[in-house]
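Risk register update: the risk of archive-format incompatibility is retired. Evidence:
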Amino acid sequence: MKDLTIGALARAAGINVETIRFYERRGLIRRPPRPAEGYRKYPADTVQRVRFIKKAQGLGFSLREIQELLSLGSGPQADCAEVLALTRRKITEVEAKIRSLERIREALAELAGHCPGKGSLSFCPIWERLEEE
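Archived output:
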């Protein structure tokens, strides 16, 4: 595959041009120099890098964590143990978020269970709880 314009890169990776520019600003992909004819050309392997970023985002990794993953992969001494450690940290973070969301769900379910679902807001237990100081 030959080098790609930003539009061709975006289409090949399944994202929009602004996402490419955003990744450039964040340092996740390199911005190629502008040649004399005016159109930047991205190396074909940039498509795989963008797909990697999107997959990592889909697994909940932040852009900072993705940068760390990409840095690990670019080093000559890349070690799976470092990727595993980062992944385990992410699992711990996700588990904490799940516990927090479960507490929120329980609180909302309790409020919903006390609400008659009709009538004035002055008698709505959900509204009353939200107005409490």
